[in-house]
């Protein structure tokens, strides 16, 4: 890609007028344009290579990673975190709404999966999500989805050394585009079936000699694919509005300061449908109870509801990243952040008559962090990074289950004590973590490197749980202290200019949890309120190569991860609450491979696959599945040792291809296709056959064209997602009396996108 001074000047003038830049600067640029005939043309090339080097962390270990550029996300029409799994094999995301998202990489991830309206706030995510070097305490804090993204990297295995917060399963490292000193703007409009819409507007450019700004606004939404027969409303969709503003200051002597602020407001109607009911001893107890209260039994894809689920979320934050280039080539980075998250759900019972309504857990979450990192100069025999990270979180929850003041709750739940009952639960969590870290790379020879790193997370977590009106309980203030070590050791050998091999080992621990629910304490005593840290040991060997003059890039790896004291959730149907537990150990082992082909400039082909055998090595006292507990004489617990780990498909693979060409009138056109498939997996931690999610594959196609328009470029495309209208489940859960509910994936959606880039 090439650009000249004259083009930059011509592009800058209208933007300076738009942003109100100083008159003196505008006149100076105008004078430069007027005298361009006397100025030799200056050409800048190699921009793509320069960007790649600038984005590379010198201490990034050369282990398995999938990196996707923001332009590729836009071309694939991928705008949400959940859609990322259609491009990256080995990652599994269960999501019912932005406040409820579980992520696993290679089978290692969040131990949720139970059916409950309670949210237990005492356990962090095993897959850490970072946005512009800021740790997000929950995946739902990714306010604006994947809009205006520069690049995303998915890192596998224990990553606790350089990513210090609980990353026993891996990391999603997301970076947005920074403000530019070259004026640019973009407007993208997408629309599709069932009210699908996505609008993204961006403007960026200089605000002064040393200051640039960037503003990105996003609106997205869809009506959903579930119809309430009673009201005619389309459910399981939602809308979101958000924005992100940035300022970039570039000072003298290698100093930069990047300030960011974002805000997002969303409203969603997450709605499961009835998938199945099961009979025990010749009787369908769920159907019988629904009939006893005069309810209408409706199986998906539709529902019959007298009240509908609604979730309102407001979130946002600010961050500051300062970089100094010090004497001798040392670099100092400081990242400061403050984030907030508010969710207010109003959940219904999923029936056509009221048993309970306006139920759910409202969450108020504040988190803040400070990281300081010093990088040594490169080019010597040893380069290293030293740093210190501080993380803080303060979360409060207020949960209600409001039962109707009629006889119906008693009939449905077989107890008159529920009539007019409002079960209230109050939760509080305070978390503080201070962690020093160091990592270095010894360049043993020009072809051999050894990287080693350590981190110690010193954590203090406290919290409480109070329950009123049913099974009253007050935990008092609970406090736990842990020092959580992490370590990394990687050896890299480059046998040739285009080949690289590595062997890696890592260890990490995820912070302990506080079991802030009454059910566990009543069953197992006060000691069960404290959840031990989860331990992860990972090993990996792999190779990467660039062949055929750069037209072929391949990589492959063998991996093994062992998880001890697996943190997961149980569900007490009697008290109707989730509780946390350590569930023994499991092993994840397998292989992965990917290839990227660019045989000509017109073709881009990508393919990748992960085979993952994840199974419990010791899970002797697991909670039994409903098909066991509802049968005659059920055992007190079940042994799942040797069984598959839930949320861990054995095989996932992805493939995509894009062909582009230039036609008459200098129109640049393209056609593209992608396919992503995953094998079956258990949807709940009890390995219930009722909630076994069948394997499925999703195909998408797109085609478009574009060209120049004045000083910018336009593009127009049409696309179809889930082209073969595959029925699939994002999540399946067990309900009352052997029923099964599920959140359906999006059916076939046809749409179009228009974009203009200046």
From TrEMBL:
Topology in membrane: Multi-pass membrane protein
Major subcellular site: membrane
Start and end residues of each stretch annotated as Disordered: 222-241
Domain TonB-dependent receptor plug residue range list: 58-171
Residues making up the signal peptide according to the UniProt record: 1-26
Domain of life from the UniProt record: Bacteria
SUPFAM superfamilies, per database record: Porins (SSF56935)
UniProt KW keywords: Cell outer membrane, Ion transport, Iron, Iron transport, Membrane, Receptor, Signal, TonB box, Transmembrane, Transmembrane beta strand, Transport
InterPro entries hit by this protein: Beta-barrel_TonB_sf, Plug_dom, TonB-dep_rcpt-like
Localization: Cell outer membrane
Database matches in Pfam families: Plug
Protein family membership: Belongs to the TonB-dependent receptor family.
Name of the protein this chain belongs to: TonB-dependent receptor plug domain-containing protein
High-level lineage: Bacteria, Pseudomonadati, Pseudomonadota, Betaproteobacteria, Burkholderiales
């Amino acid at each position: 890609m090439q650009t000249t001074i004259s083009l930059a000047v011509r592009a800058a003038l209208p933007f300076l007028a738009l942003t109100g830049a100083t008159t003196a600067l505008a006149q100076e640029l105008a004078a430069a344009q007027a005298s361009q005939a006397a100025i030799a043309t200056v050409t800048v090339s190699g921009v793509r290579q320069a960007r790649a080097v600038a984005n590379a962390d010198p201490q990034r270990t050369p282990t398995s990673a999938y990196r996707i550029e923001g332009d590729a996300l836009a071309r694939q029409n991928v705008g949400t975190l959940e859609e990322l799994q259609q491009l990256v094999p080995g990652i599994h995301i269960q999501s019912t709404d932005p406040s409820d998202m579980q992520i696993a990489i290679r089978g290692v991830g969040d131990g949720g999966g139970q059916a409950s309206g309670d949210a237990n706030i005492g356990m962090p995510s095993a897959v850490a999500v970072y946005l512009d070097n800021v740790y997000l305490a929950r995946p739902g804090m990714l306010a604006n989805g994947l809009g205006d993204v520069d690049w995303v990297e998915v890192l596998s295995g224990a990553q606790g050394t350089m990513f210090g917060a609980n990353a026993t399963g891996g990391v999603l490292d997301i970076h947005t585009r920074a403000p530019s000193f070259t004026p640019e703007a973009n407007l993208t409009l997408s629309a599709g079936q069932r009210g699908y819409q996505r609008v993204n507007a961006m403007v960026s450019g200089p605000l002064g000699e040393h200051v640039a700004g960037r503003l990105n606004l996003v609106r997205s939404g869809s009506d959903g694919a579930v119809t309430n027969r009673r009201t005619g409303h389309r459910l399981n969709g939602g809308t979101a509005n958000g924005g992100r503003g940035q300022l970039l200051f570039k000072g003298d002597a290698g100093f930069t300061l990047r300030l960011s602020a974002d805000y997002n407001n969303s409203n969603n109607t997450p709605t499961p449908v009835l998938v199945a009911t099961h009979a025990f001893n010749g009787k369908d107890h769920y159907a019988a109870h629904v009939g006893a209260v005069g309810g209408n039994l409706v199986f998906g894809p539709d529902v019959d509801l007298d009240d509908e689920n609604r979730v309102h979320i407001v979130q946002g934050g600010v961050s500051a990243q300062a970089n100094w280039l010090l004497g001798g080539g040392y670099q100092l980075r400081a990242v400061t952040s403050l984030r907030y998250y508010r969710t207010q759900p109003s959940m219904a019972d999923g029936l056509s008559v009221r048993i309970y309504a306006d139920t759910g857990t409202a969450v108020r979450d504040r988190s803040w962090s400070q990281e300081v990192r010093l990088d040594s100069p490169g080019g010597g025999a040893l380069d290293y990074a030293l740093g210190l990270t501080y993380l803080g979180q303060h979360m409060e929850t207020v949960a209600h289950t409001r039962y109707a003041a009629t006889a119906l709750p008693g009939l449905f739940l077989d107890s008159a004590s529920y009539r007019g009952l409002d079960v209230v639960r109050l939760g509080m969590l305070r978390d503080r973590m201070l962690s020093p870290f160091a990592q270095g790379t010894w360049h043993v020879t020009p072809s051999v490197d050894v990287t080693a790193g350590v981190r110690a997370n010193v954590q203090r977590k406290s919290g409480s749980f109070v329950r009123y009106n049913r099974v009253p309980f007050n935990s008092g203030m609970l406090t736990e202290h842990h020092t959580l070590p992490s370590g990394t050791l990687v050896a890299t050998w480059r046998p040739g200019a285009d080949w690289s091999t590595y062997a890696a080992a890592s260890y990490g621990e995820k912070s302990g949890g506080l079991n802030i629910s009454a059910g566990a304490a009543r069953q197992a005593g006060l000691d069960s309120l404290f959840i031990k840290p989860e331990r992860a040991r990972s090993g990996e060997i792999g190779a990467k190569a660039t062949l055929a003059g750069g037209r072929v890039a391949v990589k492959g790896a063998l991996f093994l991860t062992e998880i001890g004291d697996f943190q997961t959730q149980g569900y007490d149907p009697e008290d109707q609450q989730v509780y946390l537990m350590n569930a023994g150990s499991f092993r994840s082992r397998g292989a992965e491979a990917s290839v990227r082909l660019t045989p000509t400039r017109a073709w881009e082909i990508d393919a990748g696959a992960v085979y993952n055998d994840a199974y419990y090595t010791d899970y002797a006292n697991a909670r039994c599945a409903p098909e066991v507990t509802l049968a005659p004489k059920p055992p007190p617990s079940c042994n799942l040792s040797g069984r598959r780990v839930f949320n861990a498909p054995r095989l996932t693979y992805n493939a995509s291809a894009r062909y582009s060409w230039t036609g008459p009138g200098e129109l640049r056109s393209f056609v593209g296709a992608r396919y992503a498939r995953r094998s079956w997996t258990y949807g709940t931690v009890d390995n219930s056959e009722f909630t076994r999610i069948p394997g499925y594959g999703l195909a998408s196609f797109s085609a478009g064209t574009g060209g120049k328009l004045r000083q910018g470029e336009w593009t127009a495309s049409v696309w179809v997602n889930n082209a073969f209208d595959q029925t699939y489940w994002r999540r399946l859960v067990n309900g009352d009396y052997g029923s099964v509910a599920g959140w359906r994936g999006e059916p076939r959606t046809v749409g179009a996108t228009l974009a203009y880039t200046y």
